[in-house]
Amino acid sequence: MSLSHFDHYAPATLEEVFSLLQSKGPGARVMAGGTDLLLKIRHGALKPKYIIGLKNIRGLKTISFDASAGLTIGATALLAEVARHPDIVKHYPTIAQAARGTANPQIRNMGTVIGNLCNASPAADNAPTLLAMDAQIRIRGPEGERVLPLDQFFKGPGVTALVPLEIVTAVHVPAPPPNTGTAYLSLSARGKMDCTAVGVATMVTMTGKTCAGVRLFVGACGPVPLRAPKAEDILRGQELTEEVVEKAGTQASAESRPISDMRASGDYRTEMVAVLTRRVLREAHHRALAC
Amino acid sequence: MNQFSIVGKDVPRNDARAKATGSAIYTDDVKLPGMLYGQILRSPFPHARILHIDTSQAASLPGVRCVMTGEDTPKVKYGNWRLFPETQDEYPLAIDKVRFIGDEVAAVAAVDPDIAQEALSLIKVEYEELPGVFDVDAAIKEGAPIIHDYCPSNISVNRKIKYGDIDKAFAESDYVREDTFHVHAVSHAYLEPCAAVAQCDLDGRITLWTSTQVPYIIQCLLASTLQMRENDIRIIKPFVGGGFGGKMELRTWEFCAAFMAKKTGRPVKFTLTREEEFLTGRRRHPMTIHSKVGFKKDGTLTAKDLKIYLDGGAYNAMGPTATFLCGNFGAMLYRYPSYRFHGQHVYTNKPPASAMRGFGAPQSIFATETQMSLAAEELGLDPLDIRLKNAQVSGDTIPDVATISSCGFIEALNKVAEMSDWREKRKTLPKGRGIGIGCYSFISGGVFNWFNTQYPFSAAEVRAFDDGTAHLLTMAADIGQGCDTVLKQILAEAFGLTMEDIRITSADTAITPQADLGAWGSRLTLMNGNAVLDAANKIKAQLFGAVSARFNLNVIHEIECKDGKVYPKGRPDRSLSFGEAVAMAQKINRGEPLVARGYYTPRNKGLVTPSFSFGAQVAEVEVDQATGVVQVQKFWTAHDCGTAINPMAVEGQLEGSIQMGLGYALSEQFVMEGGKTLNTNFLDYKMPSSMDVPPSEVVHIETYEPEGPMGAKEAGEGLAIPTAPAIADAVCHATGYRCKDLPITPEKILRAKRDR
Hints:
- The complex is a heterodimer.
- Chain A folds into three domains: 7-52, Uridine Diphospho-n-acetylenolpyruvylglucosamine Reductase, domain 2 (2-Layer Sandwich), CATH 3.30.43; 63-173, 2-Layer Sandwich (Uridine Diphospho-n-acetylenolpyruvylglucosamine Reductase, domain 3); 180-290, 2-Layer Sandwich (Enolase-like, domain 1), CATH 3.30.390.
- Helices cover 34% and strands 25% of the residues of chain A.
- Chain A has helices at residues 14-24, 37-42, 79-84, 86-91, 93-100, 105-108, 113-118, 127-132, 229-235, 242-255, 266-290; strands at 7-9, 28-31, 50-53, 63-66, 70-74, 136-141, 144-149, 154-156, 159-160, 167-173, 180-187, 198-207, 210-219, 226-227.
- In chain A, the strands form four sheets. Chain A has a five-stranded antiparallel beta sheet with strand order 4-5-10-6-7. A four-stranded antiparallel beta sheet of chain A has the order 11-12-13-14.
- The N and C termini of chain A lie far apart (52 Å).
- Chain B is α+β, with helices and mostly antiparallel strands.
- Chain B folds into three domains: 16-22 and 457-600, Aldehyde oxidase/xanthine dehydrogenase, molybdopterin binding domain (Aldehyde Oxidoreductase, domain 4, 2-Layer Sandwich), CATH 3.30.365; 31-130 and 199-242 and 247-266, Aldehyde oxidase/xanthine dehydrogenase, a/b hammerhead (Aldehyde Oxidoreductase, domain 3), CATH 3.90.1170.50; 283-448 and 606-755, Aldehyde oxidase/xanthine dehydrogenase, molybdopterin binding domain (Aldehyde Oxidoreductase, domain 4, 2-Layer Sandwich).
- Chain B is built from 19 helices and 32 strands.
- In chain B, strand 15, helix 9 and strand 16 (338-347) form a beta-alpha-beta unit.
- Chain B is globular, with a radius of gyration of 27 Å.
- The A-B interface holds A 1-2, 104, 187, 189-195, 262-265, 267-268, 271-272, 275 and B 113-114, 117, 273, 275, 626-627, 629, 631, 667, 671, 678-679, 683-684, 686-689, 691-692, 745-747, 750.
């Protein structure tokens, strides 16, 4: 099957992007790496008349880090760049790990973290960690910028909070509080290099022996990556003993709403949410104490 | 053991540089002036009657040059089993009925692929849906829908084998066990999808470039279905990106490309998409295997009663051969004093299963090997010992099959145990870790002439030149397994030349000698290798005469070709260079070029194969107790392929086999619903990637096969057999879960743990 015909634009400024979006109407799509978009076109799921490439826009590729302001990943920063960026590897190791665990080297050299988020697959490898780390998404439209917590960005499979003419320019991750640890684990049928069948990410902040703060997100077990607030409640203010971690796993499992599909059965996913939740909690706890 | 110069050496493959640099020309790379692009319209229903097809709108779309349906064709059925025409059950395009989702209904050729695609959507087909059957049980039930009118039982092939007094043997056994195994379908998943380009010349003759394992079979079947003469069809096989059994029949696009090229006068190309390959492509037979085995207390086998149902899908394809062979494989590895087999090939409304690497053996031997390990447990024996006790040895005769002329099975078992530290690990590995064994035997090509060819099974032509070079022509199809390189090595060795001195032209039916049955059944090294040697020996006889005359040698002198020279043994001072000897022989014949043809057909070798390979593999696994995820840590393999003509190529076969076996055991399966394949891409068809393949160690057990060229036998398919049983046995050792229904999934492991 061949690609449908479309015109390709490679503007150099955001202003040009918005004027193109405005003049071309709903037949236009923006593209970063194109690793999801071109596949959808190839399979006939999308038939855009115009593709507006973002890779020529100055500054959109920037990855910047500041110890107090935190981390900003630009819209066209590649998965491969995020995976090996020294500041990310050092201060946000789980974000680097999730980027490194996405697809294969060829895709990571074309695709972007933001593209992975905007594709809004419930199984997106980069979403759970960024959600657990309380990331914010920066959205630009012709009218200006708005900032949205990432946990309000996903609306359903393939659906985001973006309205027509808007694009995501960056994701911002605050500097984690002291004594904080993160972890992300995923499972799939093939082992390495595969689409995630279930994934869990967490960020744990300790005060002494007590868990002062925790965020826990489950991927591929609902229409969007899901938060497990009741499991978090079990952990918050507690010592993270085996018993508490065990209970939180069971609770996270109860809070997930997986379907059965060809990647795994709903029952297996439910069971694995508990297992992975316990494992990421232990790992994040361990890392928090090691800070 | 013979001392060789080039045979037995790690020689880089003929095609390696072209493939690594991207300059290799595959069928889809063939572009001809004025070429049209073909597309196939496929059935959306698993079982339906075709009431009416209206192609008028499609035909009038600008850019469309040809639209065809079954009605336009000569309506000749085809199939590879020409010896039994009743098994030939396929038309190039459906005539009356469609029998699986993806069954080919019509074809379009247009000036570009997009127009062809659009034209497909303009063809209107009126169907009357019929009830479908999707597994063996439903298909053989009383009153089940009939898939082919000629076959009301839906059982298209019956095969029986029987020897020894089996009832008496069971009665006298100390221990008898019965098990039922289910094995599933997997895809060949060759990286090059099927493609064909046809061109018709001014005399109406057809040239077809096609991605195939069997140029000669395509030539014959294309001729019969087009009602043309064989000699008016020329098949050229460009580089092929893998076949694994999935490219060994005439297929719709090959027929349609030729038919439309003839009709339009323009070249026509078809290239399948990956989605078409997964949705409709051939696959390995799912089987239901009932096996009853008897033993003496000490583990000696007494009897085996094997009953296998093959889920064949909608057409026979290579199912008849798989039905025959899975019965032979049931009693090939070990000595069964009495044996009974009944195999039944069953039609269902699914894409046809066909040949796939191992040709019935991965299924049949998965059951054999699992049952051997189960019996060992119950009899309190080490799984290794029960195998050693019953292993075939050189000189053993399999009734009605053949005498095993070379067999390194016991040596392989002992070697693999030593390499893997089997006895120690089997006792001491902690829970969650395990070690398991799987063994295999395989054929070096088949003896049974189901294609009913009137030619020898393999042929080669060798031309020798006075510049010290030789040209080898053979119809043998290199599909990535490396036979071009191996055949060149055999000729270079025979002539005492280097690889650089040998030119090869292969797999062009208008140029290379009739015939060769193709690349399947692990037949080419032995069969075509023998044909090359036969031709080489005929040339050598002439060279030896020339050398003998030149040096006035005593007739008792033995003459040899070595290091570029031809000379009496022990008298290298009286030598001619190879080129000089050729020139001399040519002079003796008043200028006639020095050319010889060689042939091989197995004779007096029973009905199965002229020689057998053997081997054993050990897998070590770690199983995550909470997730059920299996990680294979390492494989050890010891195998007997006779003389390894090119050890590096044999190791390549082993690596590919392990990758395939890993997928068969753990991750690959077709997810199907009502006859429809849902996972039609590599994202959801879980073929292991290079990152998933664990490290492995291998030892070649040296034997010399008297029937093979320079002692060689097969190394292609046999190695694909032991991996699944070895992993299954290791998983059982690690977790207690004994898999009798592949694949082994984390969910099955966890369920078994809960059930205990």
